Fold this sequence. Notes:
Helices cover about 15% and strands about 45% of the residues.
Amino acid sequence: MRQKNVLRCLVLASVAMLVSACGGSSSSGGGSVTTxxxxxxxxxxxxxxxxxxxxxxxVKNEGLLRAHLEEDDDGNVxxxxxxxxxxxxxxxxxxxIVAGSAVSLxxxxxxxxxxxxxxxxxxxxxxxxxxxxxxxxxFGQGDIKLDRA
Length: 149
């Protein structure tokens, strides 16, 4: 699982460097992105498929997500998050990387289990939008939409 996340981060970084070298913009789907992810974010998550884990079998869920993120000068992200409506965990530590407008985040619960991976885009300085996936046996995948709080 960790190798999969590292590979995703390397691909995102490579794409951003290639776009930058060609003189193109790495922002997409809205305004330009000029600020870091530093600060508080709030929004919603939902799953697109019925759960397969023992806690969520046959259940479609959605809920709220609040996160405090910090991004360093190299695009590395750390932070904390609280999920509501997610039966497998409530609080998470966040790590990730930003490459241009591409954002890749990993949410790890209090026991050290990777619960969610997020791959998305900064649509603007105030909005994140993308897909999440869960390989830890809770339930499948879906979307996350976050706005700067």
